[in-house]
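Fold it.
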Amino acid sequence: MEYSPNYNFEVNYQNGTYILSSNKRNDWVPDGFFDGDGCISNITAIVGENGSGKTTLLDYILYSGIVSKPDKDKKYYDFFIDKFKYREQISVYKDKGRLVCYHNVGNVISIDNIDCIDITKDSKELSNMLINNDGYKNMTKIAITNSLYSKSVVSTHGCLDTITLNPNSINTLKQSFYKKSLGLDNAIYGGFYDIPVIVSEYKSIGDFQNLLDIIYLKYITETDEKSIFENLLNRDLKISFKNVGSFLKDWFEKNNDYEENNDYKSDERNLRSYYETWRHALSNISAEQFVEDITLILYSNLLLEIISCNNSCNNVDKCRIKKFKHKADIANYIENCINIENCINEPKKHSYFRNAFEEIKSYEECLDKCMNNLCLLPKHDLGYDSCKIVKHRSKELSNLFSLIEESMLKSKYSFVLRYINIRGLDLSSGERALLNYFSWLHMIPYFKVIQTDVIESTFDNILLLIDEIDLYCHPSWQQKLLDYLIQEVKFNFKDKHVQIMFTTHSPIVLSDMPKSNIIYLKNQNGKLFIDEKEKHNETFGANIYKLFDDAFFLEKQGQVGEFAKKKIQSLINEVLDVKDKVTDSKNSHQLKQRISLIGEPLIREKLLSMLVKAEYDDRMNLREKKIKLYEERIKQLKGEQ
């Protein structure tokens, strides 16, 4: 299968050897057609009816590559030979200006002096590439889709090898992010029931996606390019924080049935003891105080972690717990604990609490300048919506964006992001789908911040695979989609070499693509094959109605939905029946109303014309019948005389 518009490749099999040949195409696309700066080398669209294999093809490209040779053990030979055959490939890449063939099929030769390199597992060539991150292995494959029916894969070898970004994989990345950002590489408290572990279980995909959205929106505010998400910058945000007590209370209730001989039962008892000590310390602070000052929640949450840390380290006497009355009392206590020598005697723990305390103060300074949410419920009511309103395009919003970016991407771990609750980014399904694409793309260069085992985020070469790129998008956004995608890729992968492949059902998106850059898949009698490009019209800048017929194989089906087609045929039959039946004015009027619903003027006017003619002919026949009837009646009357 050829993805380049500039070459034709052919493989023949003779006497146990694959022979590769190539030649330049006549309808080639000039270098820099999609990107004059050299970041994006090529873009390919894959089209075809449902079931033609578009998604399957992208999956094959994503997961093809290194394979193990069939096992010599006869018991497993058939299994491995079948798996090996499916993943066989001969791939030609352009590497530093020269064509290179990578394969896993045994003997391959080229009659055009193309270097042929074996990438079967354990081959010497592959070993060298893996060691040096060179050649075929100097590439990251990224698959993006909004489909829920996709795999979750993040494959690493120091750098990222394969990434799938979809609703399922974002959940996996969420877990990795909170594990790393909360300092869980090595447990801070030492027990299984560490507070950060429990809290992270309650973080949703939506919480994580909100952070990704904020990072992306911050980028939008700093770029000169106009974005389709400009409207999101005109929305106020609501910021609040989750109380750690609500998480623990729910967690204790769920774990009440643990057996006494459970290895972690003592940890659970200790945590319950810390929790009760914490509740006692806050018992003099009213619910109204928490409602009026949302950052009080952050200080109280940090207090619980310090209580559990000091108790587990037997440092209770050094920082005695008392009943607090105000936020300032809690803040002073925490600061004293951090400053008292040997109170938090392990350097890592001390650094963690110091950074958490400073982080809270930064958010407090920003949010103190924002107004409280106006809620008409009594402050003691559990339904009271306590939050800060961060006005759109305000200095406070800009500061908040910077704080979240600092916490998420630049700090080793974040205390505040564990509890922050962001509202105001409610989106339509189309907005959500598109923002997913761009916020996920924007996240990729920061992958090493999220994944603990990644040294560098991506290799030098990027193969970006997007399934159903137009999914959920309004036609007006489909018109801008490819242009915005090119801008985003160029920004996020400035120093990389990128090739893009996407599937689509949209003639609007396809009108941005030259015919030479399109793969036409077709399903005929249950067999899948690639349709010849020569059979199709040029697509770039083409009329989208013609693209419907040509590129999406609708030439025999028309451009009207099946339901509408049946309704129109029914109307045609009714109009034809008017000639044979006497139709009263009421039925005629209803028939005209239904015909007027047809949007295509040629069909609508033709049916109306047929109806008028049928009614006219019908009236003429009725008059002649009446005349004959009256004549016969006259004859009868004369005969009676």
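The CA atoms of residues 287 and 380 lie 6 Å apart.
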